[in-house]
Structures are given as structure tokens and as C-alpha cells.
Design goal:
The protein is 19% helix and 17% strand. The chain has eight helices and 14 strands. It has two domains: 40-72 and 183-448, Phosphatase 2c, domain 1; 120-178, no CATH class. It is α+β, with helices and mostly antiparallel strands and 458 residues long. A hairpin with a 5-residue loop joins β5 (207-215) and β6 (221-230).
């Protein structure tokens, strides 16, 4: 069981957090009430409505017949052993399918979208790309692969560095598919770092993230990390995750500097993410079966963390997770989220043990997600007040499938993650890829307290 037994703690002042910022009384529905702050030993926290979370990872008891959707990793058809070896070695892409939404643009140091470490722009190739032996694809004869307009820069192949790249992202000289912008992404700020990788089985990266820092009204820092996982069985999952991560981050960055309570900001950020995903379905109402925007609509999960002074706020919908790993590894680690999944509901209902539920083939069928066809939106938010330094791990199931318990996650997280979050995030992604990389892998690491702050007191 990941979460230590809660200890009694003095009641907090509803709607107020000790510190330089006097938070206003939160208002709103289903998540607008601030929870008291807690010690890490009281890591079960409180729900967004102010009530106690269940003491087990099963979540709330089943009160209605749950609606499920599966999110199985896409197995690329007909992949040869040579191509699989090339992909495992980081050489090339499996196909050249593009993304309708533009890649995250570079931003200021206060707010950053993913940097495209594998972006195909420029003539130079990635380290170790010389002498590549990846399986080649025939040069495209598609008339759409027309020459660029006169005066436009010519995009060169990242492998041979000579051939021009056609509009369908194949080199016209060596025929190789070019890496896509979201195959591998990394972002590092002073107070947070994130890494996302397509993995070894998916044909594209359907995860997305956004990390940022903002200033509160009194000038103190706030750190935001959002991670989203597109539902592979839905239409346009890559667009859903990207739209949700951007919308949630932008909403939080708008609210926090105006003095909105961090837990209320998290709730509203998740609502904004949901609205952004719903809008995708309305843009293309024929994408669903039978022409309905609410059938097989774009969908994704979301999990986020906000660090403000002595307060840590977590919010989520779906089965993406957040973990707490203290700097002192002798102290207990904890999982901070409860999955919206079939397995979690079976455990909550007392129908299966946790081991039995997660061994079932239906374990990862999710019961909560963002999307126009979701049964209802139920954002979860919790707040904590750790009394010691540590790191918050915010990730998709592409990582936690290879380090499921809090103890497992602590074991694979570098001990210097608080000082070097980017290097530690890279190592976590490598751990998942070495374990098989059966899904997209995305993780954001948020050191607590934020750089320049002292640890919270008990």
C-alpha cells in the first residue's frame, strides 16, 4: 500500500494558508473549498470538497455503474526487427504522420513548453546519427511533395544531411522518415523539469506536458507542472493531450498571480483543460462514429502539481499519477493520486484485492477522462504541507507501469533529483524504455520547496 497511515493533525483554517500571501476565501463548485495543510505523514490529504480521502488507493466506493474506456498502446504493424532495433537506438521514426497543432513554441524563462530535442529542423543530425543503418523507405513521388516556394529555406535530412525533406516528412535522397517534433521533448526551468518520449511501440507521442513558473502578488514564486496522456482508443489523442496541457497551464498562470488559492486554481485549470478537449470534438463533429461529436471524441487524462511556498497542491482526472519522494529516503514515499480506473474501483468496492485487480487485463480501463464523451467531469484536488524537502514526480502510466508503488518510484529516482531534476527525469524515461517502452513516457519533476525557499515547518 503506497500511502502511509494518516496521523492526526490540528485542523487548518479553511481558505487560508500560512505565509506572506493571504489567500481569499475560495469560491466555486466541486473543488472550490481549500483543504487544510498536512504533514507528509498525513499524506492522504483531503478532497477538493474538504472531506477525508479514503485510506487506500482504491478511491471512493462505486456509487454508479462505471463507464470504461481502454487505452492500449498502439502496436505498429509490420515493424521489422531491423526497424525495431533502429527505433530502440533512437534512429528515425516509424512513420511521417504530422500533427495538425503546431509544436509548442519557445517561451520565456517564466513559462516553457517542451523543447523539441529531436525536432528535424536544420541540417545537422542528432548525436550518433552518422553511419545510421535504419531501414529506408522509398522516396515519395507524391505530387504534394512539391518544391518549397522560391526563397523559402530548404529543410535537410537529419540522417544524410544532404537530401531535401518532402512535405510528407521523408528525405528525397535517402528516403528515411524524419523524426517528428514530439518524438522526444525536454524542458528545464530553475524549479521544474520535464521529459517526454514516444517510447518503442507507439507510432507517435500522444503524451504532452507544460511546465511553468509564475510570481504571486507578493512576488513569491509558484511552480506549475501539467502532464496529460491521450487516450489511444479515441480520435486525435495527441491533439487532446496537447490542448489540455496548454489550457491547464495557461489557466493556472492566469489565476495564481491574481491571488487565487492554489487549490482553486488547480480545479479551474482542470476545467479549462476539459473545455479545450471538448472543443476539439466540436471542431470535427464527423470524427466520431455515426457523425456524433460525442462518440469516440478526443480524450486524455490529466495530472498536475502546483508548489507555492509551503503548500503542495495536486489535481488529476484519469490514471496519470503524482508521487512524493522525500530527499531523506529513510522517510516514507507516497502516491498522492487515486486512479480513475477499473482496478481502483474494484478495490474500493471490496470486490478484489489490489494485487488481484491490477493483475486483471481490465486493470487499466479508465473510468475518468477529459473529453466530450466523458460521463461527467469530476476533478480531484488535494493539498499537502510537507515538513521536509523532496521531489514531486508527475507522470503518465508509461512510466509508472515500470515503477508502480511509491517505494519502486523512490528506488529508481536519482538521489540528487532535487538539485538536477532534468537529469533525473531523463533517467526515469530511460528506465521505462529499458523496461520495454510499451507506451509513451512522460514525467515532470518538481523539487519541493521551490528553489530559494525553505522547507515547510510541521
Amino acid at each position: 500500500m503506497d500511502v502511509p497511515s494518516p496521523l492526526s493533525s490540528p485542523p487548518g483554517r479553511a481558505g487560508a494558508v500560512p505565509g506572506p500571501v493571504r489567500w481569499p476565501e475560495p469560491s466555486g463548485v466541486n473543488g472550490g473549498v481549500s483543504a487544510p495543510v498536512h504533514l507528509p505523514s498525513d499524506i492522504s490529504g483531503r478532497t477538493s470538497g474538504g472531506g477525508q480521502l479514503p485510506p487506500h488507493p482504491g478511491g471512493h466506493p462505486v456509487t454508479r455503474a462505471p463507464e470504461y474506456r481502454t487505452d492500449h498502446a498502439y502496436e505498429h504493424p509490420g515493424l521489422s526487427p531491423a526497424a525495431e532495433a533502429d527505433r530502440a537506438a533512437g534512429r528515425g521514426a516509424l512513420d511521417a504522420e504530422g500533427y495538425p497543432l503546431p509544436s509548442p513554441a519557445g517561451a520565456s524563462s517564466a513559462s516553457s513548453a517542451p523543447s523539441e530535442q529531436s525536432a528535424p529542423s536544420g541540417a545537422g543530425g542528432p548525436a550518433g546519427s552518422s553511419g545510421d543503418t535504419a531501414a529506408t523507405a522509398p522516396a515519395s513521388a507524391d505530387p504534394r511533395a512539391a518544391a518549397p516556394p522560391t526563397g523559402a529555406p530548404v529543410r535537410r535530412c537529419v540522417f544524410c544531411a544532404v537530401g531535401p525533406v518532402s512535405r510528407d516528412a521523408y528525405c528525397e535522397t535517402c528516403g528515411k522518415a524524419q523524426p517528428r517534433e514530439r518524438d522526444h521533448m525536454e524542458t528545464a526551468l530553475d524549479a521544474v523539469a520535464a521529459v517526454s518520449d514516444r517510447g518503442l511501440r507507439h507510432h507517435r507521442n500522444e503524451d504532452a506536458y507544460a511546465v511553468a513558473a509564475a510570481a504571486l502578488p507578493d512576488g513569491s514564486p509558484a511552480v506549475v507542472a501539467i502532464v496529460c496522456d491521450g487516450v489511444s482508443s479515441a480520435s486525435r489523442p495527441d491533439e487532446a493531450s496537447l490542448a489540455a496541457s496548454r489550457a491547464a497551464s495557461e489557466c493556472a498562470l492566469d489565476l495564481l498571480p491574481r491571488g487565487v488559492h492554489p487549490q482553486q486554481a488547480m480545479h479551474r485549470a482542470i476545467v479549462a483543460a476539459s473545455e479545450a478537449v471538448n472543443a476539439l470534438a466540436e471542431e470535427d463533429p464527423t470524427a466520431g462514429d455515426g457523425g456524433s461529436a460525442h462518440q469516440n471524441a478526443p480524450a486524455c487524462t490529466v495530472v498536475g502539481a502546483i508548489v507555492v511556498g509551503e503548500l503542495l497542491v495536486i489535481g488529476w482526472v484519469g490514471d496519470s499519477r503524482a508521487y512524493w519522494v522525500p530527499a531523506d529516503r529513510a522517510a516514507p514515499s507516497a502516491r498522492l493520486t487515486e486512479d480513475d480506473s477499473w482496478a481502483a474501483q474494484m478495490v474500493a468496492a471490496g470486490l478484489m484485492s489490489e494485487a488481484e485487480a491490477y493483475a486483471d487485463e481490465r486493470a487499466h480501463a479508465i473510468t475518468g477522462w477529459l473529453g466530450a464523451d466523458a460521463y461527467e467531469l469530476e476533478p480531484h484536488t488535494v493539498s499537502f504541507k510537507p515538513d521536509r524537502a523532496g521531489v514531486v514526480v508527475v507522470c503518465t502510466d508509461g512510466l509508472w507501469n515500470y515503477a508502480e508503488s511509491a517505494q519502486d518510484m523512490a528506488a529508481v529516482l536519482a538521489t540528487d533529483a532535487g538539485r538536477q531534476p532534468l537529469a533525473a527525469a531523463r533517467a526515469l524515461v530511460s528506465h521505462a524504455l529499458e523496461g520495454g517502452g510499451h507506451d509513451n513516457v512522460t514525467v515532470a519533476l518538481v523539487p519541493f520547496p521551490a528553489p530559494g525557499q525553505g522547507a515547510g515547518s510541521a
